[in-house]
């Protein structure tokens, strides 16, 4: 059983790692787009709503796809004043509890509450309210359950990792 568990953890970790390493290039793209927007605005007095909206899309995708990678890398904010003083088994219990009751419940809640919101947006292929804006608001809204789903997937791997640590 432990071999299968390790394989599941490794597969999820590899997916999050690959996704995070690919999506991190969006940070470069975002900087370049902002540089272009600022250059156009202040050097040529040209404004472009579609470009400005693209920064929101890029930032949202970076956040949504990068959150699971950050969880895997243990980069999310933690309050570990007491945690560091616990035994290894107690730390594993805290991590399992957090994975289920904080990450799990929150992730399921986000997917459940955003489902109709996203589905309504898809039903009309919602676009920007601005005439020269991007016509992909439905894709932007889709990032909400995607974020939660990716976090749930990596959270499952973290739970299994903690379970193995507890059993050891």
Structural commentary:
The chain has 168 residues and is mainly alpha-helical. The chain has one domain (2-167). 79% of the residues lie in helices and 0% in strands. It is built from 5 helices and no strands. It has helices at residues 2-23, 25-44, 49-72, 88-123, 137-167. Helix 2 (25-44) runs antiparallel to helix 3 (49-72). The longest helix has 36 residues, at 88-123. 18% of the residues are buried. The model has no long low-confidence stretch (mean pLDDT 93).
Please report the total strand number as a whole number. 0
**Main beta sheet, described?**
none
- What proportion strand? under 5%
Average pLDDT taken over every residue: 93
Give the N-terminus to C-terminus distance in angstroms: 13 Å
Helix segment count?
5
Q: List low-confidence stretches.
A: none
Radius of gyration, Cα only, in angstroms? 20 Å
Class by alpha and beta content: mainly alpha
Number of domains: 1
Entry keywords:
168 residues; mainly alpha; 5 helices; 0% strand
How is the secondary structure organized here?
Blueprint (H helix, E strand, L loop, with lengths): L1 H22 L1 H20 L4 H24 L15 H36 L13 H31 L1
Helix pairs in contact: 1-3, 1-5, 2-3, 3-5, 4-5
């Amino acid at each position: 059983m432990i071999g299968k568990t390790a394989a599941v953890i490794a597969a999820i970790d590899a997916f999050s790692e690959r996704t995070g390493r690919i999506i991190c290039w969006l940070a470069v793209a975002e900087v370049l787009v902002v540089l272009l927007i600022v250059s156009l605005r202040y050097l040529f007095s040209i404004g472009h709503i579609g470009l400005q909206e693209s920064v929101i899309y890029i930032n949202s995708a970076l956040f949504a796809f990068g959150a699971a990678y950050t969880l895997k890398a243990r980069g999310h904010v933690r309050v570990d004043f007491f945690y560091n003083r616990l035994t290894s088994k107690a730390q594993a219990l805290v991590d399992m509890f957090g994975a289920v009751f904080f990450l799990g419940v929150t992730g399921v809640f986000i997917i459940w509450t955003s489902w109709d919101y996203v589905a309504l947006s898809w039903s009309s292929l919602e676009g920007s309210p601005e005439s020269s804006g991007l016509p992909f608001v439905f894709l932007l809204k889709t990032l909400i359950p995607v974020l939660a789903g990716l976090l749930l997937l990596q959270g499952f791997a973290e739970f299994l990792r903690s379970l193995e640590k507890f059993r050891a």
